Each structure stands twice: as C-alpha cells, then as structure tokens.
Amino acid sequence: MIELTAQEIADMTGGVLAAGTDPQATATSATTDSREVREGSLFIAKPGEHADGHDFVPAALQGGASLVLAQRELRVGEKTVPAVVVPDVVLAMGKLAAALVARIREQGELTVIGITGSAGKTTTKDLLAGILSVQGPTVAPIGSYNGEVGVPLTVFNASLDTRYLVIEMGATKIGNITYLTDMVRPDIGVVLFVGTAHAGEFGGVENIAVAKSELAQAIGTDGHVVLNRADQRVRAMAEVAAAPVLFFDAQATEPVPGEVTVTAVEFTDAGFPRFTLTFPNGEDYRITAGLLGEHHLGNIAAAAAAAFAAGVPTADIAGALDGQGPQSRWRMERTERADGVTIINDAYNANPESMRAALKTLAELGRERRTWAVLGEMLELGEDSIRAHDEIGRTAVRLNISKVLAIGPGAKPIHTGAWMEGSWDQEANYVDTLEDAERFLNDHLQPGDLVLFKSSNSSGVRHLGDRIALQASHQETQSGESTP
C-alpha cells in the first residue's frame, strides 16, 4: 500500500483520530486478517458474520500494526489504541480505496480493468494479469476477491508505480457493481456471460443481466467495453454502453473483422485446447492453452480482448497466453496419483452452466477411461435448485459418465436425475457427508480412473478432492466390477 499517515487515512475515510493517536503515524500495508499483519500495517477491524475484527486488535498490535481502522475507540491495557474511527469500516475501506486509485492516477499512467460475469472471472483475471505483468507493474486480486471488501483489499496492494489494476467485480444484488465501479472508475469493463449463479438472491436471471450491465454502463466514452458476443444477454449490453464496444467470441465459425475470435479448435492428447486466436486488426496466432476444457476458451478470448483494448501488442498477448495454466486453486486443477488415478479438482465454485462445462470436459478427456463425477451442491439457485440439480444428473448420464457420486442433501436431486435418466446398476450413488464420500472413493477408485470434483465453494468438495488427490494408493478391490 502507498504509505499513508493517520491523518491522511482519516481525511480519506471521513474518520476521526482516536484520543492520543499521532496524526503523523504511518501505515504501509493494510489487512483485515490479524495473522497477516506485519510491521507498519493498518489493521482493519471489520465486523463479520462469525467474528468481530475488533476482538483481534491486541493480536494485530502484537504483530506490528501501527494503526487500526475501527468503529469505536479501543483500549489495550492502560492505553488507547492508535486508530482512525469511522461509523462503518466496510464503507470506509471503499472510500480509502477510491482515494488511493485517484492518487495513483495523479502520479502516473494507470489503467483499471473491471471484470464481471456469472463464472470465469478469476480465470480471466489470472490470464489477463499474466499478459499485463510483462508490460508493467500489475496488481490483481488474490484468489477471488471481488466484493465490497475484496476490491479495496486488492487496491491496497497497489503502489504509485502500478501501471495496470485488474479488478474482479462480483454481485449478489442490483447496485453492487455500481458501488464498485464508483470506487475504482475502470477504464475497461469486461462482461463474460450471464448465468444462473445467485439466481435465488437476484430473483431471476434477467436481474442478473441488469446487475452485470452496470459495468458496461460505467465506462466513460474514452474507455472500452469488452463483451461476449456468444451470450445474447451480454451482447445486448452494447446498447447501454457509452464507450466503444469490442466483442470477443469463442464460438465463432470464422474470424469476424474488428473482433477477437477463437476458431479452428482441436485438442492435444492431454486435453488442452489448441486454436487460432484472431485480433481486430486481422493478425492471428496459433495457441495451445494451458487450461483444461473447452469452456476456458471464452475466458482466454476475453483476456485477449481486454489486453488488446489496453494497447498491448498482439504478439505479446499471444505469447503470454500460449501455455499459460491456472494460477488460482481449484480451477480444473489436475493431479496424477502414483496409482494411475487422475484427479480434476474444479470445486471452487459451481452453477448449472459451469457444471455442464466441467462434465463435458470430463467426458472428452475420459473417452478411454472410467470416469467419475463427484458432485456437491450448487448454492444460491433459489426455487430452481431441485430442477437444476436434477438436470445435472441427467446430463452426466447423457454424456456417458461412468459413475456419479452426489454428496449431501442439497445435491441429492443429482442422484435422482441420473437414476431417472437410466443410470442403474448403481452407476449413480449418493452419500450424506464428505466423510462418507471419502470412504466410498477410497474403497472403489481403481487405477486409470478419471475423477472430477465439482461443487459450490462452501460445500467443501474442493477439500475432499485435495484429500483424495493425496492418496498414495487405493485400497485393494476384488477382481471385476468393484462398485457395489
């Protein structure tokens, strides 16, 4: 973080200094996690759903924090904690982030790129950061920081010489993205696609489209809006964009003049897409992705389009994308076990669209192998949840996935759907808990099996995938068919 004094932080956030706080005391980093505090940190005492950051102030001070951003004055022992006191810590984080972005712009050239979409934001962010980091100092989110807390934390990692600032923008209701765009004022906005993630919270997919369009509307006339032509709801956002629109398309049959397209797709023996990437100026490059699955082609095209809009030379974009693999965990993460079992852990998040894409990849990669779809619940689907899970089970059967294992009551309709679609003879299985699933898999996986783990984040399936991937060997099974 840019070095700031206590008085500067107070001025930026509209806060006041706690009694006895030195106005010239400085902070050089910021965090909401007392375990991440280092010498000179601003510790942000954020109230949370399960814990209150104010309770961790003593630990933060012991770790070297020089200042605290808090909602009340605090004392440790006989002393008042040096702090900036604000009415709402989260809103103050946003104000501080906005002020820092403005300061960086004053000091030099800065391009802010916002990315939103129902899925693929983190992968696209990672790809784009890989391109831009070769061009100049680049800051991008850690993991999937994309909300009212995560975006400021990303900004706090920037310095005065930051050239590119990549921001993920997530939303759970209309207005969330506008709040974030007001904060960081993006120069380029990228909208990936509109799916059913959080449909229950939004009250329907059309409201999701309205929320995502807030990014397209926020870009000024001197910026660029990057839209997915293959998604009709995203394509329609061109009508509300004031800035020039650049389309990308990973489903084009041939290059389109003035757009970024992916065509002539084939797959390596290991399952990585190889394709032709064509830019608006007509230049094209043959690229082999380092990401498993055809569904990542849209993320690659989006990252290429955003970089092109930012002025990066096409050869540099293509060179950075060629072979670039996953940078964040649990995104089609592949592990080869010593006993011949292959694990694909894609369980960071899930919605019906990403579930179908992952199952399709599993089917394509496993043509000569026994395939397993280990699936947990997709959350926040609202009244469509049972139908959506049922359809995923049916999809797995239609794709000839050998074995389906649904985990937990919320995912039980996956098992029901697979059974109703004709997955009999115990090809479809259901267990109540992750522990049950772990025992089941350890009992029944065989050398050569290809196993996909997929669910929403809080279902915990990603950690089950990690544990199964670490198994050095499987339990001995009887000869013949081993699944009960």
Defining traits:
single chain, 484 residues, alpha/beta, 9-stranded mixed beta sheet, 6-stranded mixed beta sheet
Describe this structure in words.
With 484 residues, the protein is of the alpha/beta class. It is built from 16 helices and 24 strands. The strands form five sheets. The protein has a nine-stranded mixed beta sheet with strand order 11-12-10-13-14-15-16-17-18, sandwiched between helices. Strands 19-20-24-21-22-23 form a six-stranded mixed beta sheet, sandwiched between helices. Strand 16 (260-267) and strand 17 (273-278) form a beta hairpin. Helix 4 packs across helix 10, helix 12 runs parallel beside helix 13 and helix 13 (385-398) crosses helix 14.
Summarize the SSE layout with pairings.
Blueprint: E1 4-5, H1 6-13, E2 16-17, E3 26-27, E4 29-31, E5 41-44, H2 57-63, E6 67-70, E7 75-76, E8 79-80, E9 83-85, H3 89-107, E10 111-116, H4 121-132, E11 138-139, H5 150-155, E12 164-168, H6 176-184, E13 188-191, H7 199-202, H8 205-218, E14 224-228, H9 232-235, E15 245-249, E16 260-267, E17 273-278, E18 284-288, H10 296-309, H11 314-321, E19 333-336, E20 342-345, H12 352-365, E21 371-375, H13 385-398, E22 403-407, H14 412-420, E23 428-431, H15 434-444, E24 450-454, H16 461-469
Parallel strand pairs: 4-5, 5-6, 6-9, 10-12, 10-13, 11-12, 13-14, 14-15, 15-16, 20-24, 21-22, 21-24, 22-23
Antiparallel strand pairs: 1-3, 2-9, 7-8, 16-17, 17-18, 19-20
